[in-house]
């Protein structure tokens, strides 16, 4: 894409949700960095710097502001692990355009999560994931853990779709892209950890209800589209823009990048408004764990937006991550698109019917 866009040209994010962060996040970060060094996850100092520079403890502390330290640590470790795995084997690296090799590798990684015993054939990522899984089993219930396992499998399937598109130079249409992004962004396992971090198991009749499923999917998509926004300037600078919501819209609508940005932000804002309205309708009739879960979805939307505007992962341009941006965030006062009409795409239109 020929257009060049500075991050200051992107519209501010609309997010009328309250800021919250777990007060123990710095101690969790300290313990997580010690774990990263002990577990042998990173191949060299540069890779370690980028993994630590994801600020994953800060990230998940915004999703679970009331979590106990050991529970928050377990979730934060998976986030650090997920970013390391994504950078090395999904977005870049040997497997990033080889779906025939990615799929069996990812299946072995998934199996390392599922089985409660290690294997002599486990690589560094599988061994680290085994350690995280043991922590989840220790602090979570079997139901919570199996929900996370299923969400993890869905994430890897979405990444496989993304890699298959890259391998054949295929730009998906918007509906296919949103379906893929609901999985490939990693939002499913990230939000599935809310129960483990908070310690409250949501009854199946609530978690699997259409309304709560819709709220979960909307939270995932809003965060995923925000991440597309966060990463866009860096991807443009590196010429790495094969699939994001902006390039999808520009390719299929024949519009400029600036026009695609406005369309994408408007779509994202409509989904967020639907999330806010449905959450208000549903929350009062949920159990205490159910209310805590949907509140966690809201914390995650806000926290992901805050984190993404400041984290070195997105704002650093050098070979190594720089400092975290601590300047005040300017938020949009109103949505770019406040329509209550359903978005007419098969993958998401049902969110307006529950």
TrEMBL record:
Keywords: Lyase, Magnesium, Metal-binding. Gene3D superfamilies: Farnesyl Diphosphate Synthase (1.10.600.10). It comes from the Bacteria. The keyword Isomerase does not apply. Its EC number is 4.2.3.-. The keyword Magnesium applies. InterPro entries: Isoprenoid_synthase_dom_sf, Terpene_cyclase-like_2. Its cofactor is Mg(2+). SUPFAM superfamilies: Terpenoid synthases. GO terms for molecular function: metal ion binding; terpene synthase activity. It is an enzyme of class 4 (lyase). Belongs to the terpene synthase family. This is Terpene synthase. The lineage of its organism: Bacteria, Bacillati, Actinomycetota, Actinomycetes, Streptosporangiales.
